[in-house]
Amino acid sequence: MDGGKSAFWLEVMEQLRTEIDCDFCCVGLVEGESRSLHWKAASGNEGERYSSISDRPGRGLTGTVVKVGRAMPVNFADLIMSRTLHEYPIMTAERLRSAYAVPLTEGASVMGVLLAGDRWKRVYRPEERNCIKLAAERISRKFAENSSEAASS
Questions:
Q1: Which Pfam family, any one, appears in the UniProt record (predicted)?
Q2: Among 43, 44, 84, 99, which residue has the fewest nearby CB atoms (within 10 Å)?
């Protein structure tokens, strides 16, 4: 992964964690023909396990945030009750109890997800959701700038 891109993502995620006082932030990108979601960078992680996790196409965050292109809250208890916890491996790997996921977009397509999460039950207030959305927009803009620079060189 590009070191400059990773450093920028980490800076945005650290800022976000401070701003909304959350335990964890992670950037995942949709890759390959299968459109699997692979977690690329994290802040507040308990280890490096996140980097080996990918969400299968049509499942978990790939089947919701990526497919629909809208932000969504993720609650551990709801996942257990609906028997879909296995579709959200990042939640169990990082022991998250609550999360809020926002799509990273490039034009009209979703290229990834910014996930903010906590290791305790939490409901994200509208102003916190807005902060996560703004952080996702910053990451998306930077990604688009890098893509256009790469295309022009």
A1: GAF_2
A2: 84
Tell me, yes or no, if the pTM score tops 0.85: yes
CA distance 138 to 42: 16
d(CA 99, CA 49): 18
Q: How far is residue 68's CA from residue 17's CA, in Å, rounded to a whole number?
A: 25
How many domains, the chain? 1
| pLDDT value, residue 153 | 53
Residue 39 belongs to what domain range?
3-146
The region that residue 105 occupies, defined by phi over 0 for left and psi between -120 and 50 for alpha, beta otherwise, is beta
Q: How far apart are CA 16 and CA 138, in angstroms?
A: 11
CATH number, position 94: 3.30.450.40
* 153 domain-assigned: no
Write the Ramachandran bin of 21: left for phi over 0, alpha for psi from -120 to 50, otherwise beta.
left
29, part of any domain: yes
Within a domain: 80: yes
